[in-house]
Inverse folding.
């Protein structure tokens, strides 16, 4: 009970922003997997904050190294953190592997500079959002999670970059167009994907098609989009772009 309470407190602090798509991905996730989804989403938010906000490279590397060791402890059955103890014994082996890949991706992102063009943005998305998507898909025993969710995960990851401080307006528009193209291409996968990937895809689409394209606030429209996506009703236009 103590671990559950501690994990909820830790996760609530990291998933408290209704402007973050992961907030709704957890809120509308299927109940049997909700605790694991909450744990992975909170862990991803923690890792993302580590590579984004820590100015001291040594401190950021040390934190990532600790999390890498913790994922190894999880695999060995000796998890120490409340979030990994929550995941212990309830995840497929593929999901544990995906968590390790997520740490590796963040280590690579830490070595990169700010987003200055679409190529850099896509690289960050491949190492961030795409690996998050693979970890979430693996929770549902999707053996082909990495391959199946590739474009979908990159689209979700790119959408998380929209509105980033200092992002050039031209680059932002290029990212938004790329998100639309990727999500339109991967619409069948998104429609069939386990939740919360459908919710993340729908909200990424909304972020990329808003005017301005990076509006990241909580509003009834976003809540409704997430609620419908949780019932496998994705935005209609998402399947028509590029058709």
């Amino acid at each position: 009970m103590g671990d559950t309470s501690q994990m909820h407190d830790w996760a609530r602090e990291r998933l408290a922003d209704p402007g973050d798509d992961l907030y709704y991905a957890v809120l509308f996730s299927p109940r049997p997997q909700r605790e694991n989804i909450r744990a992975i989403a909170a862990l991803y938010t923690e890792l993302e904050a580590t590579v984004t906000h820590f100015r001291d490279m040594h401190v950021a590397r040390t934190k990532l190294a600790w999390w890498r060791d913790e994922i190894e402890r999880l695999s060995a059955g000796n998890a120490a953190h409340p979030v990994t103890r929550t995941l212990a014994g309830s995840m497929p082996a593929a999901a544990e592997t995906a968590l390790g890949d997520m740490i590796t991706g963040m280590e690579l992102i830490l070595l990169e500079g700010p987003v200055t063009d679409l190529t850099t943005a896509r690289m960050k998305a491949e190492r961030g959002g795409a690996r998050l998507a693979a970890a979430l898909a693996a929770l549902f025993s999707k053996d082909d999670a990495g391959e199946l969710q590739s474009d979908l995960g990159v689209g979700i990851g790119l959408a998380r970059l929209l509105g980033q401080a200092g992002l050039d307006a031209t680059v932002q528009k290029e990212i938004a167009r790329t998100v639309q193209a990727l999500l339109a291409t991967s619409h069948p996968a998104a429609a069939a994907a386990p939740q919360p990937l459908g919710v993340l895809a729908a909200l990424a689409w909304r972020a990329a098609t808003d005017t301005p394209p990076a509006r990241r606030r909580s509003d009834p429209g976003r809540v409704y989009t997430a609620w419908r996506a949780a019932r496998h009703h994705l935005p209609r236009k998402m399947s028509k772009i590029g058709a």
